[in-house]
Amino acid sequence: MQVPLSWYLVVAAALFCIGLYGVLSRRNAIGILMGVELMLNAVNVNLVAFWRYVDPLRAAMTGQVFAIIVITVAAAEAAVGLALIIAVYRNRRTVDVTQVDELKL
Amino acid sequence: MTANFFFNLTWLIPLFPLAAFAIIVLWTNRNRLLSTWVAWIGIGLAWVLGWFIFWLAGTYAQHLTAPVSNYPVPLFSIPTGSTQLQVGFQVDTLTGLMLFMVPFVCLMIFIYSKGYMNYGTEAVDSRYSRFFAYISLFACGMLGLVVSDNLVTLFIFWELMGLCSYLLIGFWFEKKYADPNRITPKQAGLKAFLVTRIGDILMLSGMLLLYVQTGTLTFKEIFSPDVLHKLATTYAFGQVPWATVIAVLIFGGAVGKSAQFPLHVWLPDAMEGPTPVSALIHAATMVSAGVYLVARTFPLFVAVEGGTQLAVVAFIGAFTALFAGTIALAQNDIKRVLAYSTISQLGFMFAALGIGAYVAAVFHLIAHAFFKALLFMGSGSVIHGVEHGRHHTSPEGDLREHEGHSHQGREFDANDMMNMGGLLRRMPTTGWAFIAGALALTGIFPWAGFWSKDEILADAWNAFMHGTEFGVAKFWPIFVWAMLTLAALLTAFYTARLVFLTFAGRPRTEAAHRAPESVPSMTWPLIILAIFSTFLGFFGMPWASQFYNLLGKYGTILNEPIPHGEFNALVAGISLFVAVLGWFFGWLLYGRKPLAETVDPLEKPLGPVYALLKNRYYIDQLYQKVIVRPVIGLAGAAYAFDDRIVIDPLVDGVGRFGRWVSEALKKFVDNPIVDGAVNGVGRVTAWFGEFMRSTQTGQIQNYLLVAVVTVLLLMIMFLARS
Questions:
Q1: Which residue of A10, A40, B165, B485 is most buried, as measured by CB atoms within 10 A?
Q2: Interface contact flag, A24 B708, Cβ < 8 Å
């Protein structure tokens, strides 16, 4: 029995919502970053699921390629984000985002 | 003729001193020496050109006759409504004679001023350069006056001189005296300006009437026979022709300027100015401008045969000559004696004009300018010497000097003859030059005054004996003769008094005892003028009168030749006799034995008369009471009307009403509506900004939340629509 597309979408949506919740609710910058990673991977699940079900002949590799690009970007993003967090930590001795609000006028 | 070329340069003469004035005022006023030289060069050029023009005018006298001559020469014209005012200059023998006298006397006085204003000493006047600027401007006025060919420019230069006179009388405007009754230079300048203004108003109204009647103010056109005939035959009112009215009004200007009775009061007070000014303006040139004016407009005065105008001139002149002479008897201020003498001598000239003795009047005008300038400069030199002598005196010496002095407690007055005496030994050059001037003034043979005064008296006598000119009534010549002969006696007496009190005897004060002779720049002009005063008369001897040749012979001034004044041995004898008699009396009272005390020997025998003379017939007080006080009262009333009661309150009321209206507008319109709108816009903006500001928390998660919610909402809207 083949797992239907909707199951994948539900899992991806749940994963996205969990990531979004983490991003919105965590105070720790690393936690936020982790939430972002979850959201990105939820998108990846979607991409691959759509590729598998929307194009049954699997003539093009677009879904997989897109997912791999997203993973690459996520890696780069994690690197930049962690570097920023370390820089902030060195300056402020904290990674609490509510403490880092200097952009406010 | 080539002379034309030079005649055409005449208009440059007044420009030289004017240029000097401008240069001094604008550039050189910080450098005293340079200013002096600029003034000297300005007047020097005017002098050279003036004498050259005079010589040419004398040479070509017969060509300057009115119908033949090319003169006047128009320079430019000013549009005046429907007519054109031709501004130009003219040369005739009268102008030539004035150009002989004016720039030369000016030059002498300019040179003298250098020493008088203490150039090169620590006492040098703080406004030294300004003085030279003013006298240069004055010289421009006088020279411009004599070359003018019309009454308008003549009047402009006339007023320019009035202005300079005012500025120069008040030159030491900061000076104050301890005696509150003594007039200060500032007041004297004001007085001179205002008193002469009365005459000027008369003259201006005469000019206006003349313009209304003839439509021109150019001499050549006014004095053409047709115009004169028209003026003489059209009547202003009753049997009085316009010529008479206009002539009397113009004579009014001359009365003011030449300080004739009743407008003579300003001239003695004008002596508050520096002495070179007294010599230049108040003796030699400006005051004779009045005589010149009457001489210049003489055709108007003789347009009507036997008209009142000549009688007025003769009466005022003769009366003033005697009247001023009597006042001079009792004055102690050396310059005031000379001032009254000037008034008296100007009276001689007017009296001569009034009986038609034109040549004699002009002759006396020229001669008088020389010897009166000499006398004033001599008196200035004396005053200067006494002041210097005073500075060399120790203060203790002064105190001793003042004890038993009639002027005890008063400040020392260097002008007071009672403080002088014996100065001939101290100041020989000044003294002898002064005596030469005094002899000329009193008419001792053969000094200039003898010839000029004698010619007036002889003309008067001859007119009485052999018939008068211009239809003058027979009474006037003999009246003039009697008055002037008496005045000549007084002249000799007060001049003798002046000379003996100043130069003879022993010094009556320490200051006079120590008075030094003046510097060469002051004594040389005295010497030169003394020479002129001595020998000038020989050019006017009745049997070889150059003045007659210039003025009378060819009819250049009037439309017909003026008759020649005959020599009359009887008249000459009488006038010489009264002059000698005057000197004798003067010597008897003041020279025979030195004055024991500083009280005038005349004071006791004359009693109240002396007081009357000393107080100048109380005319100043009379004017003060009758004219000045009421005028000031009237001005006060007008001021009150204007400033306190009617006009100003009205104006203030209008202003206050306007202010009230604007206050109301401000309160009810501007503040609540206009300002409210403007402020409201600002406040709303500020409030909105404040509100929006609260959304900027700086919390990245808030922003993200907003973004997520917005996307969700958009998504719901999108789904709901599809």
A1: B165
A2: yes
pLDDT average, residue stretch B594-600: 69
DSSP characters for B93-143? HHHHHHHHHHHHHHHHHHHHHHHHTTTTSTT--TTHHHHHHHHHHHHHHHH
Cα B526 to Cα B377: distance, rounded to the nearest angstrom: 7
Q: Rounded to a whole number, what is the distance in Å from the CA of B697 to chain A's nearest CA?
A: 6
- Give the Cβ contact number of residue B108 at 10 Å: 27
Give the pLDDT mean for A8-34.
92
Strands B83-89, B235-237: pairing is unpaired
Contact A29, A92 (CB under 8 A): no
Q: Output the pLDDT for position B597.
A: 65
Which of B700, B702, B715 to mutate against chain A (most A CBs within 10 Å)?
B700
Q: What is residue B411's predicted lDDT score, i.e. its pLDDT?
A: 66
Above 80 in pLDDT, residue A30? yes
B520, pLDDT greater than 50 = yes
Shortest Cα distance, chain A CAs vs residue B699, angstroms? 6
Q: Is the pLDDT of residue B685 over 90?
A: yes
Could you tell me if the ipTM is greater than 0.90?
no
Question: For residue B38, what pLDDT band results from cuts at 50, 70 and 90?
Answer: very high
Out of A20, A32, A103, the one facing B698 most closely (by C-beta) is A103
Residue B156 contacts residue B14 (beta carbons within 8 Å) = no
C-beta separation of B270 from B210 below 8 A: no
Q: Residue B41 carries which side chain, given as an amino acid letter?
A: I
Give the closest residue to B222 by CA, choosing from B132, B102, B90. B90
SS3 B375: helix
CB B412 within 8 A of CB B598: no
In sequence order, what are the beta bridge partners of B89?
A: B73, B148
What residue spans of B298-427 are helical by DSSP H? 298-301, 308-329, 334-354, 358-391, 395-402, 423-426
- Residue B407, classified by CB atoms within 10 Å of its CB into exposed (0-12), middle (13-18) or buried (19+), is middle
Residues of A in contact with B705 (CB under 8 A): 24
CB B701 within 8 A of CB A33: no
Residues B13, B6: Cα–Cα separation, whole Å: 11
Q: Sign (positive/negative) of CA torsion B482, B487, B492, B496?
A: positive
Confidence category of residue A45, pLDDT binned at 50, 70, 90: very high
Assess contact for B590 and B601: CB atoms under 8 A.
yes
Distance of CA B32 to the CA centre of its chain: 25
Q: What share of chain A is helix, strand, coil (3-state, %, to 5)?
A: 75, 0, 20
**Is residue B177 within 8 Å of B184, Cβ to Cβ?**
yes
What pLDDT sits at residue B556? Answer: 61
Q: Over 70: is that where the pLDDT of B554 sits? A: no
Contact indicator for B450, B543 with CB cutoff of 8 Å: no
What pLDDT is stored for residue A43 in this prediction? 93
B493-531 burial, b at 16+ Cβ within 10 Å, e below that, comes to bbbbbbbbbbbbbebbbbbbbbbebbbebbbbbbbbbbe
Residues of chain B in contact with residue A97, where contact means CB-CB under 8 angstroms, are 699-701
Instruction: Locate B272 and state its tokens.
Output: 């508050």
* DSSP state for residue B592 in the 8-state scheme: S
Put simply, whether A23 touches B (Cβ < 8 Å) is yes
| CA–CA separation, B271 and B161 (whole Å) | 16
* Spatial distance between the Cα atoms of A17 and A10, rounded to a whole number of angstroms: 10
- From residue B491, how far is each of B47, B439, B483 by CA, in Å? 31, 10, 12
Our CA-based measurement puts residue B696 at a distance from the nearest CA of chain A, in whole angstroms, of 6
Residue B408 has pLDDT above 80, yes or no: no
CB atoms within 10 A of CB B685: 10
